[in-house]
Specification:
Number of strands: 8
Strand content: 15-25%
Number of helices: 4
Order of helices and strands: HHEEEEEHHEEE
Radius of gyration: 16 Å
Oligomer: single chain
Distance between the termini: 43 Å
Structural class: alpha+beta
């Protein structure tokens, strides 16, 4: 497949005008930054491995941090995936190298963050559905613009992007080296549960949703997260 103007072929993009100070690049409490060699590239394995890792967003010198507690896998040749009908300008980030951000707009209201998987040229990703807030909660509350319990700040994929101020400027960002968005190693073990994915009409029966058992920030019906 001929590829043009791919965000993966360009320098990593970030909404930051300049690199953050060293203390904001990882922070002693949120090191080490995960790189491609630290995570599996197969989609299901990646979606599971992301549970318990930390999503870190540097914003105006502050770190917003959340523990990923819910993901969904979207496989190659998956009828529920945006990549099912091939590469487009919207889903181009899905077809690049692993550990890039694929950010898309859905339902006219929500940005959603995905972490890409598989080899270059194969469209697949893991959707980040929910995070437990760890640091930067005051800013997360301000970004949500509502009075909410902490557990609700990043509960659901659209709310993840709201709480972390993640939008289209991050589409195609290389999470291995982006100065404003990355993954860090988790700070505690988690027990992982599995269920069908949420809100789909195609391939809805596939057990490709993963969540941290016992987390109050997990989204969706309680029956799916016993």
């Amino acid at each position: 497949m001929k590829r043009t103007n791919s965000p993966r072929a360009q320098a990593p993009r970030s909404p930051s005008a300049s690199p953050p100070p060293p203390s904001a690049r990882g922070g002693a409490a949120f090191e080490p930054r995960l790189v491609r060699a630290d995570l599996p590239h197969e989609t299901v394995a990646l979606a599971r491995a992301l549970i318990g890792t930390l999503l870190v967003r540097e914003r105006e010198g502050e770190l917003l941090v959340g523990r990923i507690v819910e993901t969904e896998a979207y496989l190659p040749h998956d009828p529920a995936s945006h990549a099912f009908r091939g590469e487009t300008s919207r889903n181009r980030a899905m077809f690049g190298h692993p550990l890039h951000a694929y950010v898309y707009f859905v339902y006219g209201a929500n940005w959603c963050l995905n972490i890409t998987s598989e080899a270059h040229g194969i469209g697949a990703a893991a959707l980040v559905r929910a995070c437990e807030p760890v640091a930067g909660l005051t800013t997360m509350h301000a970004l949500r613009g509502r009075t909410l319990p902490d557990r609700e700040l990043a509960r659901g994929p659209g709310n993840v992007c709201r709480a972390f101020a993640i939008g289209p400027a991050f589409d195609g960002a290389d999470l291995e080296c982006d100065p404003a968005l990355w993954l860090a190693r988790g700070d505690r073990p988690v027990e992982i549960g599995t269920s069908v994915r949420i809100g789909l009409t195609k391939a809805a029966e596939m057990p490709l949703r993963f969540y941290a058992r016992g987390s109050r920030s997990v989204s969706g019906p309680r029956a799916l997260s016993p």
